[in-house]
Specification:
This protein is of the alpha/beta class. The protein has one domain: Muramoyl-pentapeptide Carboxypeptidase, domain 2 (2-Layer Sandwich), CATH 3.30.1380. The chain is about 30% helix and about 15% strand. The strands form three sheets. A five-stranded mixed sheet has the order 3-5-6-8-7, with helices on one face. The longest helix has 16 residues, at about 180-195. The chain starts with 6 loop residues before the first helix and ends with a helix. The model is unreliable at about 5-20 (pLDDT under 50). Bound molecules: zinc ion (ZN). The site of zinc ion (ZN) has 5 residues, from strand 6.
């Protein structure tokens, strides 16, 4: 079911958008591969790892590289076919995938690293923290430590029923929403249990969003996917 984003909300919030540039100035944003590599030389956990390079059986359905998303626009370049997380969450995701395999299950990734410029673009479109991250704060996706995912059956790629799709902004997507069939509650609990077992934190308002702790350790990044694809760290 697609989320509904009232145009009226967008109009009412337009006057706030001019404040973004002021607020952005307070954030440190890493914008170059060279600066990222310097950080990685001091701390290898800062490395951005292409997820299939450690976890080849992942399925990608990168919604923001298509129009199949809640803003109905390509927010990433259309040829974006890869995505990234910092080293520790990437390795943790590999462990999650390995553990799922014995049950005939796997992971489908909807989003992971998101360049900061895309968060700004979302804000300019929507301007409402109920739906998108406020660029004044940045997000776990900008830091390369958050991932949006669901579980699939590996034999045919069918998604497990989680009660809502991706980016469904309503109470129904909250972990605390219990008025759902038992098999859906069990599927959400399965995802949450295995992600938390391997170190991720759940986000109570979106069953699909998980992030790595200690976000403050990781800088906000605004490096395009094309540049990351060329890096060899
Ligand atoms: Zn997310």
């Amino acid at each position: 079911m697609p989320p509904r984003l009232p145009f009226l909300v967008f109009c009412l919030l337009q006057p706030c958008l001019s404040r973004i540039s002021i607020l952005q100035a307070q954030l440190t944003v890493c914008r170059s591969i060279q600066d990222l590599q310097k950080t990685v030389q001091k701390d290898e956990d800062q490395q951005l790892v292409e997820l299939k390079s450690v976890c080849p059986n992942l399925i990608y359905d990168l919604r923001y590289a298509s129009k199949n998303n809640f803003v109905r626009q390509n927010m990433y370049p259309a040829r974006t076919r890869t995505t990234y997380l910092r080293k520790q969450p990437a390795l943790a995701l590999k462990r999650v995938q390995e553990e799922l395999q014995s049950s005939g299950l796997g992971i489908k990734i909807w989003d992971a690293y998101r360049p900061y410029g895309v968060t700004v673009a979302f804000w300019e479109l929507i301007g409402d923290e109920r739906y998108v991250a406020n660029p004044a704060k940045g997000s776990g996706h900008n830091r390369g430590i958050a991932v949006d995912l669901t579980l699939i059956q590996t034999n045919d790629g069918t998604e497990l029923d989680m009660g809502t799709g991706f980016d469904h902004f309503s109470d129904t997507a909250h972990h605390q929403f219990r008025a759902l069939p038992v098999h859906i509650l069990n599927n959400r609990a399965l995802l949450r249990t295995i992600m938390e077992k391997h170190g991720f934190k759940a986000y109570e308002e979106e069953w699909w969003h998980y992030s790595w702790p200690d976000s403050i350790r990781y800088e906000i990044l605004d490096i395009p996917f094309a540049k990351l694809k060329k890096q060899r760290s």
